[in-house]
Design goal:
Strand 5 and strand 6 form a beta hairpin. With 265 residues, the protein is of the alpha+beta class. The strands form two sheets. Strands 4-3-6-5 form a four-stranded antiparallel β-sheet, sandwiched between helices. Strands 1-2 form a two-stranded antiparallel ribbon. It folds into three domains: 80 residues, no CATH class; 34 residues; 95 residues, Chitinase A, domain 3. It has nine helices and six strands; from the N terminus they run αββααααβααβαββα.
Length: 265
């Protein structure tokens, strides 16, 4: 379905709520073909996901959605009449949609048969928190082209020169105009030599030896240190579940590949 048609079908989705009522499990019919409540729920869910909306139904105009489903069924019946399914491209797309639906069904079955427990989630949370780098640093730096230039800057600092002034005057980095200000950062945001150097410094110190990275030679000043509060278990529980589910799927695929006869050309 192209974007223009998709937009037409969901254009009335978020209109004011309507009191339009239906009987039983059928919300409408088109030329004798019923449109069920299940059809309605599925279409609404998909439309919400495409628009990035919440799953709640507040503000949804039910009749507008049903009219979109009626239009959709009319187009479907016209496509059948025109024997569109015989088109090679359409047939291929239908095949891929079926494959995707079956794979998703398998994943859902695997998840249902062997659900991830809260104990597993908590274990994963504890492991990630233990390995997380929660220390953050606030620093400035002066980036120079050569080691000799960096040593000269260090000598000037030893003689009482202000770090910010030297950064504005001599640094070749983009932070020069701000006196070398880097703000707060996690060590993982910096290249290893930079992070390793700053981890060995104390608050208020500047590096006594030039620090070499792929960007050049740095003179670093550590201004402050703080501990970042880790996210609470309840706040990332859903993300952890997705991570563990993906890990299980990958293991399942590895198992299938070991048993399969695969030839790649």
């Amino acid at each position: 379905m192209n974007k223009k048609l998709s937009g037409f079908l969901i254009s009335g989705l978020m209109l004011a709520a309507s009191s339009w009522a239906v009987a039983g499990n059928t919300v409408a019919s088109v030329n004798g073909k019923p449109i069920s409540q299940k059809d309605y729920d599925f279409y609404l869910q998909q439309a919400m996901q495409r628009r990035g909306q919440n799953k709640g139904r507040g503000g949804v105009n039910r009749q507008a959605v049903i009219n979109e489903l009626v239009n959709r069924e009319l187009l479907h019946q016209a496509a059948i009449k025109e024997k569109v399914e015989n088109d090679d491209t359409v047939a291929f797309q239908l095949k891929q949609l079926k494959v995707d639906a079956m794979i998703q069904g398998l994943i859902n079955k695997l998840s249902k048969d062997n659900p991830i427990t809260d104990k597993e989630l908590k274990k994963e949370y504890d492991k990630r928190i233990a390995g997380a780098k929660l220390t953050e640093y606030k620093a400035r730096h002066i980036l120079l082209k050569t080691e000799e230039e960096a040593k000269t800057v260090i000598a000037e600092l030893d003689s009482g020169a202000k770090f910010e002034d030297l950064a504005k005057k001599k640094s070749t980095g983009p932070s020069a105009k701000d006196g070398g200000e880097l703000g707060w950062f996690n060590p993982s945001q910096m290249v290893p030599p930079f992070s390793q150097a700053i981890a060995q410094m104390k608050k208020g110190e500047y590096s006594k030896k030039p620090v070499k990275t792929q960007f050049g030679w740095h003179v670093i000043k550590l201004e402050d240190i703080r501990k970042r509060t880790p996210p609470k278990f309840k706040d990332i529980k859903g993300q952890l579940r997705m991570v563990l589910q993906n890990q299980r799927i990958q293991k399942y695929i590895v198992k299938l590949r070991k048993k399969a006869k695969i030839k790649i050309k």
